[in-house]
Amino acid sequence: MSQGHFIAFEGVDGSGTTTQSRLLASHLREAGLPVTLTREPGGTPVAEKIRQLVLDPSLEGISPTAELFLYAASRSQHVEEVIAPSLNRGDVVICDRYIASSIAYQGYGRGLDLEVIERVNRLAVGECLPAATIYLLLPVEVAWARLRRRDVADRLEQTGMALQEKVSRGYQQIAQKDPTGLVFDAQLGIDRLAEGIQDALRRQWSWFPEEKK
Ligand code: TYD
Residue 154 CA: which ligand 1 atom is closest? Predict the structure, then answer.
């Protein structure tokens, strides 16, 4: 039985999952809690290699199913090497993207059967599921405008607005159905969003640190 707490961040590209997962990690570390901050795809040497492959802009011909398995392979390695051991030693594990990303991108985005995605991911992670999933929702035009301002464009970001739009609609549905889901408007502004996330987690969990005065 794991002792730790598993929190995942989810949202379209440009929604701020990386910024917000870092801010939550710093907040908890400042309060003296042991935190493992990690990300997907990646998080271990093997999984980072898979990340390089799957996000390579030259990999145009990859099939959606091959992509699903690559993300699941990365996730399985990540759980085994990082997430499960960290939870077992009592850490708060904060993961920037997890299974809902596969449902949103490979399912709603690329059209794979959602049940197949669930099954493949169950095989990959077993019972290692987040206790809270934070969804940062953003209208697709706003996400798009944010992405255009960034110079990094990986393969998925380059596939354009049509995919992002499907993913964005997908996240709305996934968030509604997810019993662990906490849903936020990603346009709130970085600090207000960070505070909103902390407040929601504090209401949910007695171990969560008090508000800073
Ligand atoms: P991310 O690391 O958030 O990108 P960046 O570092 O550019 O902010 O995510 C990489 C991309 O991988 C993102 O477009 C979402 C996609 N992705 C999937 O399609 N399926 C998955 O299961 C995961 C974890 C990510």
Answer: 7
